[in-house]
Write a structure and sequence with these properties.
The complex is a heterodimer of chains A (80) and B (334).
Chain A (H helix, E strand, L loop, with lengths): L1 E6 L4 H17 L3 E6 L2 H6 L7 E4 L2 E5 L5 H11 L1
Parallel strand pairs in A: 1-2
Antiparallel strand pairs in A: 1-3, 3-4
Chain B lengths: L2 H10 L2 H14 L7 H31 L4 H8 L4 H13 L8 H10 L4 H13 L2 H11 L1 H24 L8 H5 L12 H35 L3 H7 L7 H9 L6 H13 L4 H13 L2 H8 L4 H24 L1 H4 L1
Helix pairs in contact in B: 2-3, 3-8, 3-11, 5-7, 5-9, 6-7, 7-9, 8-9, 8-14, 9-17, 11-14, 13-15, 13-17, 14-15, 15-17
Classes of the chains: A alpha+beta (80), B mainly alpha (334).
Chain lengths: 80, 334
């Protein structure tokens, strides 16, 4: 099963990204497990200096900004 | 009246907005702006609208420029400079990075784990909230070009000097142990299109406005109160020319406060209009923006208490020193 992680320390942008990811997953009808990573140490282990970030199957897809829903769908398709 | 003056009054000082607000207060509310209530309402409406216009334009502009200098790139640039040049570059690059204490931890970890000297990282972390394009333009609007330039210059000097002192004290062992264990964040920043940068900048305006609007309203409220209700002699005795410790008091009051330049400026403006020394006013603004309880809590998570204490002490002493300096040389600036 695909694994999507949202990295962020609980800021407003991270919540917004989580919402977008949930919508994208629903619209694609994909079988995905969504996890939130809020621990700064774990976030930094992905090599990210700016949040929010989206990680799919342990690959960082975007960070430091909120990608659009369409972009998120593209990321998911890339990893199917 | 020269073209420059017209531009200055109408665009920077937004005289038109003041006039419209005056019309509204006098004709619609039927209160003369000379009265205390009328004056306070005028100050409140005019300043609030003016600050929100400035905030939207400036945050957009800054975020757009900043999208060309993400921390990944900053770190790479800083890695090329040694010694004091590194501190100067750190302070300069800090000026194009906007205010947000929430990003200070990842940046601190990212910089130190990449091997940047501690002093360079601190030069960056001090200058970033203290001096930026927004604070320059806000000061230009409210206090004029000389004070704006002087503020930026001393702000950068403070960041550079504080960084150098921290470096010389050899405090590398004062970084929290787990920071060292985190591998260096190795991701490169992605190249963005102009459209993506604009979208990012608009997003920043929205998220910052959402975060700071309440502080702005509080700031404007306090400013309106100072402007119209607090007697001149009280101001003189507490933060004015009658109190030799005014700068120290202004600094210590400002430190725990959490606000950015937009929330601080209405208070600073009102104090300045009440003849409080420019050094006292600027010390207050610097203390509010450079240090705050949330930012200290953040930094305490990555450095040990000794370094935190040293960092805070250097910044406080620096701001007080700058405050007295500005008060002494204020005749050159006003």
């Amino acid at each position: 099963m695909m694994n999507i992680k949202i990295l962020g320390t609980g800021c407003a942008n991270c919540k917004k990204l989580t919402g977008l990811v949930e919508e994208a997953v629903k619209e694609l009808n994909a079988d995905v497990e969504i996890q939130k990573v809020e621990d700064i140490q774990k976030i930094m282990e992905y090599g990210v200096m700016r949040t929010p970030a989206i990680v799919i199957n342990e690959k960082v897809k975007a960070f430091g900004r909120i990608p659009s829903k369409e972009e998120i769908k593209e990321y998911i398709k890339e990893e199917v | 009246m020269s073209i420059f003056n017209i531009l200055n009054d109408q665009i920077l000082k937004m005289q038109w907005l003041s006039d419209i607000t005056k019309l509204f207060v006098e004709k619609v509310l039927n209160l003369p702006v000379q009265s205390k209530i009328g004056g306070a309402i005028h100050f409140f409406i005019y300043d609030t609208v003016k600050i929100f216009i400035l905030l939207s334009v400036l945050i957009f502009l800054m975020s757009y420029i900043q999208s060309y200098f993400p921390p990944e790139r900053t770190r790479k640039i800083l890695g090329k400079f040694k010694g004091i040049a590194g501190n100067i570059m750190g302070a300069l690059l800090g000026t194009i990075t906007p205010f947000c204490s929430c990003s200070s931890i990842p940046i601190f970890i990212g910089f130190t784990s990449a091997g940047l000297p501690l002093g360079v990282t601190f030069s960056f972390l001090i200058s970033s909230p203290l001096v930026d394009i927004a604070s320059f333009l806000v000061l230009l609007t409210f206090f004029g070009v000389k004070i704006a330039i002087a503020y930026v210059v001393v702000g950068i000097i403070l960041a550079v000097v504080a960084g150098i002192i921290i470096e010389k004290l050899n405090l590398e062992d004062q970084i929290q142990d787990y920071v060292r264990k985190i591998g260096s964040p190795n991701l490169e920043a992605e190249e963005l299109t102009k459209r993506a940068r604009a979208i990012y900048a608009v997003g920043e305006v929205k998220s910052i406005a959402k975060k700071v609007w309440i502080y702005i309203l509080i700031g404007v409220g306090i400013g309106a109160a100072i402007h119209n209700f607090i007697p001149q002699e009280v101001i003189d005795n507490v933060v004015g020319s009658n109190n030799p410790f005014a700068v120290i008091l202004a600094t210590l009051v400002g430190i725990p406060m959490y606000a950015d330049i937009f929330g601080t400026i209405p208070i600073a403006e009102a104090l300045f209009a009440k003849n409080v020394g420019i050094g006292t006013v600027l010390a207050f603004m610097m203390a509010v923006t450079a240090l705050s309880l949330p930012s200290m809590v953040m930094i305490s998570r990555v450095v040990k208490p000794k370094l935190l204490t040293i960092f805070i002490s250097i910044v406080i002493v620096g701001i007080i020193f700058i405050g007295y300096l500005f008060n002494i040389f204020s005749y050159l600036l006003i």
